[in-house]
Amino acid sequence: MVEIERAAEAFLAGIPRYVWDGATLPVPIEEIADTHVGLLVRDVEDLGTAPGAPKLGHGQALSGLLLPAVGEIWVNAGEARQWPARRRFTIAHELGHWRLHRDAERGVFCRSGSIEPAKPQARVPLPPAEDEANVFAAAILMPPRLVQEQYVICDRDFFRLCDTFGASGAAMGRRLHAVIKPAS
User: Fold this and answer.
1) Kindly report the CA angle at 146 between 126 and 171, in degrees rounded to 5?
2) pLDDT band at residue 117 using 50, 70 and 90 as cut-offs
3) How large a percentage of the chain has pLDDT more than 90?
4) Which of 16, 25, 157, 158 has the most CB atoms in a 10 Å sphere around its CB?
């Protein structure tokens, strides 16, 4: 996944300073999607209405989707209201698909369990493209240098880190494990 981290770093480096200065937190993911990439972010109540949306089984839901042909990211409005940090991660995840897996015509549909599952024990192996989009999303929302900086500034306070980055506890926990190396 080192190549995905590098792709995210290159993506962030290419963002004009008027969109994001590389330091202000939380990373303005919706402005990046809109102004830098040209993708409209829409909160939609029923993602099943999207062109080409898959049929879902009982209890299944879509968290987000990328419609490259129309230049839009759709976010599950119910999830967005309930978990604003998840909304941010979903947008970043779909940007990961845009950067890494885009096909000009076909949409990318992401089920709730594919994007930052709430409970680590609920994690099942994801398809490689979903895992890559998650790594990309974490890297652009929580860049390694800023996580390391804020880890010290926030005096290792996990909840302050979550608030500072606009991240869920699950996403921040995984990111800390990836970025902060224990002292030997």
Assistant:
1) 30
2) very low
3) 69
4) 25
Token reading at 116:
């930052």
Coil, helix or strand at residue 157: coil
Contact, 129 vs 146, CB < 8 A?
no
Residue 65: in which H helix or E strand, if any? strand 62-67
C-beta separation of 107 from 70 below 8 A: no
Rg (CA), the chain: 16
Which conformational region is residue 155 in: left (phi greater than 0), alpha (psi within -120 to 50 degrees), or beta? left
pLDDT surpasses 70 at 184: no
Report the distance separating Cα 179 and Cα 154, nearest Å: 15
Q: Does the pLDDT value for residue 147 go beyond 90?
A: yes
CB 100 within 8 A of CB 133: yes
Please check whether residue 167 is in contact with residue 85, taking contact to mean a CB–CB distance below 8 angstroms.
yes
Which of 126, 66, 140, 130 has its CA nearest to residue 98? 66
